[in-house]
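Researcher: Let's run the pair from yesterday's discussion. Sequence first, then tokens, for each.
Model: Starting with the first of the pair.
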Amino acid sequence: MVNINQEITEVIKNSVPGIIKATIILFVGNYSANIAKKITKNSFKKTIKFTDHKNRKDRVKTIADLASNTVKILIMIVTVTTALSSLNVDIGPLLAGAGILGLAVGFGAQTLVKDMVNGFFIILENQYNIDDTVEVAGFTGVVKSVSIRTTILEDKDGNLYYIPNSQITKVKRKMR
């Protein structure tokens, strides 16, 4: 019984510096991720100030949210893996497992990823804006909403069409 207590005491003594180090890494990483997110968002806000068109402002806000959240997630992934490494956790198998899981999710969510990539390029290239009359995926109407995943059109009868961005391969933008 005394041997077990001594072993537990030794394990705790050896673990405490690693736990403190991991806690500090997580705290600093979270703080850094929040600052990086704010910096990313603020740099896009400066762009918004010089933009006079409302649709462009909305587009920049969408891209700002996407970019700032991506920056924060990437920093937090690095932070967590560094903290685990400081606790002497072998992160090699963890990263390999995450890679395999990411591959499986990627195959399962191909359409979703395709929607998001197409949506990102539609917004980035400014192919059309809200209130533009367009013909996409066999539908003609006024653009009511453009998001990363879908575009919403309203036809002349008031019907709404939710079109996944992966189905938008050609755009016919009608000028007024």
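Model: Moving on to the second of the pair.
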Amino acid sequence: MSLTKQVLQLIVAAADPISLDILAASTGKTKREIVKMTQTLKKRGYITVCDALDARLGTGARGIYLPTEAGIAFASTDGEIKPGKTGPRPRNRTVGLRERAWWHFRAHSVATIKDLLSTHANGTEKAAQDNLYKWVIALEAVGILKRLPMKQPAKQSKGRVVWSLAKDLGPAAPVWRQIAKTVFDPNSGEVFPIKKEGE
């Protein structure tokens, strides 16, 4: 088993968010080496690195690591984390937050809004959480994403909703057309109408 996979398992097994110091002490590796591994895990969407004030913890949490739903699922498998292997990727260059979120769903199958924001938002997006949430809800409404019955635990709420990829349409991210109330698939050209409640 690779050391990066072992670090992921340590993060998943921890009862509380785990620190860089504890990971270094547990593995016998330097902090620099651990940071390199955690960056790999973050790129794959397996962990969240808290480097600012985080409502989930209520404190400044630089160097604190939390597993994502995808990380928890992957830690229990026999899969290995190899350099350069990040799962199926879209062929087109991903530039926007929604495009990066779509790549995340195709690569890891499941995610929460928190996972997507902490992994892919860079701080320059306007109203990133609201924008991404509305897009996810639109994809859910047409059956591209599916809301799972279980929720990801969260200290200050009843739990975060977890969505899974129900239809992999292809590399290009679905486009939510708010005014037309449709979702457009640029891969096939198909348009999915968003039905109103009761229809």
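Researcher: Give me one sentence on the second I can quote.
Model: Residues 97-193 form a domain with the Arc Repressor Mutant, subunit A fold (CATH 1.10.10).
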